[in-house]
Amino acid sequence: MQERLISPAVYELLNSRGANTPLERLEVIQEACGAHQLSPSDCGNTRRWREY
Which top-rank group of organisms is this from (predicted)? Predict the structure, then answer.
């Protein structure tokens, strides 16, 4: 977060869900984006990742 790679909202979400590994983080973010719990700017990268 200090390097502004993730937003405060994403940081809080990941901490609240205990997502520590890259896979856990991706899954939590994808679920939150699917449920419209994060802003479109926070979901931008995960949309591209799902295409691959």
Answer: Bacteria
Query: Does residue 22 form part of some domain?
Result: yes
pLDDT tier, 44 (very low <50, low <70, confident <90, very high otherwise) = confident
Give domain status of residue 51, yes or no: no
The domain total for the chain is 1
End-to-end CA distance of the chain, in Å? 26
- For the chain, how many helices (H) and strands (E)? 3, 0
- 19-30 in b/e form (b: 16+ CB < 10 A) is beeeeebeebbb
pTM above 0.70, yes or no: yes
